[in-house]
Every structure is written in structure tokens, then in C-alpha cells.
UniProtKB/TrEMBL annotation:
It comes from Caenorhabditis bovis. InterPro entries: AlkB-like_sf, ALKBH6. This is Alpha-ketoglutarate-dependent dioxygenase AlkB-like domain-containing protein. Its cofactor is Fe(2+). It comes from the Eukaryota. GO terms for molecular function: dioxygenase activity; metal ion binding. GO terms for cellular component: nucleus. Belongs to the alkB family. Keywords: Dioxygenase, Iron, Metal-binding, Oxidoreductase. The lineage of its organism: Eukaryota, Metazoa, Ecdysozoa, Nematoda, Chromadorea.
Amino acid sequence: MSPPLPLPRYHHYLIDFLVLQKPPRCEADRYVGSMILEPRSLFIMTDRAYETMLHGIAERDSDYIDPAKVFNCRPELENKTIQRGTRISITIRNVAKVSKLNVFEMLKK
């Protein structure tokens, strides 16, 4: 079996971080910064960051890499605009059991 080839489907994206506040304020006031998710990268958000910050990827066709806003900006990406492509994302969460509802029994009906 031959090794897998890197697929062109893996592209960069910027993920934005916002402070979770009560009462909610406008998004611009809560914006903390962004992080570039590079091709074939792994991002894990845990502990305090997961509990106190919102995160998301804005809908747009390209990203401007502003070194003042992007936490992990490499020098060769500074002040560049990068076109987006498709990025495949998988989210895994550890959720405590909150219901005794048996989904499999419901599906049988």
C-alpha cells in the first residue's frame, strides 16, 4: 500500500477568538485576536481558553494576515492576503451523560 499523498483540499484559515462576556457586548469589543490554521494543522482548545472564549471561522474568500492580530504569524506571511480553499474540520467533545433517553429505541419506531 502506497503512502497517502497530501491532498489539495487542505488550506489555511484564520480562527478568531472572542472573550465570553455577560451581558454580551458587540463582537468587535470582544475580539482578542486570530490564529492561522495552516494546511494539515491540528488545533486543540482546552481548559480556561475553552471555558472563557468563543472561537469561530468567519465566512470570507480570503484572509489578510495582520501580524498585530494573528498570534502565530510567521514573518513570510505578514501583511499578505491569502485565498481560502476547502478546509476539513473534525470536532471531538467529551460530554457528560445528560439524558437517559435511548436514541436506539427511538430509531426502531
